[in-house]
Amino acid sequence: MVLSLGLVNIFLFFFAAFLLYCYSNIFRYYFRIHYLNGWMLLWSIVLVPVMVLRGRNVANMRLLRLVMLPLKYILGIKLNVRGATNLNLKGPYVMVANHQSNVDFLGMFQILPDRCTLIVKKEILYYFTIGMVTWLSGFIFIDRKNRDPTIKIMSEAADTMVRDNLRLWIFPEGTRSYSSTILPFKTGAFHLAVKAQVPIIPVVMSCYLPFFNTKLNKFTTDIQRDIPPVL
Predict the structure, then answer these.
(1) How far is CA 66 from CA 51, 62, 70, 109, 161, in A?
(2) How far apart are CA 151 and CA 46, in angstroms?
(3) Distance between CA atoms of 86 and 12, rounded to whole angstroms?
(4) Beta strand spans in 122-230 (E)
(5) pTM (2 decimals)?
């Protein structure tokens, strides 16, 4: 019986990776983090040519949501949504949510209403195909360092959301907190709502620290988290 040395090495590699995943919190943490980011990158490559056919259109968010929804099952994260009926409004509105990490996107796509897109920092445009997918999905990009252009963009966004019946999701903290403490809010989301004369719906994501902690290199699946939109 002839057994290829290459196959043996591959087997040993995956067996070692399996053991590390089972018994090393640090390995499991980084594996799951890179799997999350790798999933988004891989599917962005697949989606770009599909979305290009439609052009820049908020309807592309449906495709993005479709490929992101299974990720919570793969990572073993259970989501408990409360108050989702508060999103059943016919007209445009602004959604504001706390921002802890990229894990937020799992909850966001779980409840994302139809014709909803995001207002994000312009740096995301430079994330290779992820930037292309976000642009094609109608994301609105702002420069947090330049106030005047941002004010103009937010004003235009207010007119657009009323004209096209859009919902806009914003992380008003402006950056990830990685903790249970909410950072001070930027005022852009509230000026946007006043300018457009639309309601604001707050979305509160429960603290991730029991199952996701960057300081402890912890990313487990044994804690069920709540994601309750609250009025």
Answers:
(1) 13, 6, 8, 9, 23
(2) 34
(3) 52
(4) 140-142, 167-170, 200-203, 212-213, 218-219, 225-227
(5) 0.84
Other Cβ atoms within 10 Å of 97 Cβ, number: 22
**What are phi and psi for residue 202, nearest 5 degrees?**
-75, 140
Tokens of 129: 């195909």
Whole-number Å distance between alpha carbons of 140 and 118: 6
Residue spans of beta strands (DSSP E) within the chain: 79-81, 94-97, 116-121, 140-142, 167-170, 200-203, 212-213, 218-219, 225-227
Beta carbons of 100 and 177 less than 8 angstroms apart: yes
What pLDDT tens digit does each residue of the chain (231 aa) get?
A: 445 667 777 777 777 887 888 888 889 899 999 999 999 999 999 999 999 999 999 999 999 999 999 999 998 888 889 988 888 888 999 999 998 888 898 999 999 999 999 999 889 998 889 999 999 999 999 887 777 778 888 889 999 999 999 999 999 887 777 777 787 888 888 889 999 999 999 999 888 888 888 888 888 875 444 444 443
Of 78, 80, 84, nearest to 230 by C-alpha is 84
User: Is residue 61 within 8 Å of 137, Cβ to Cβ?
Assistant: yes
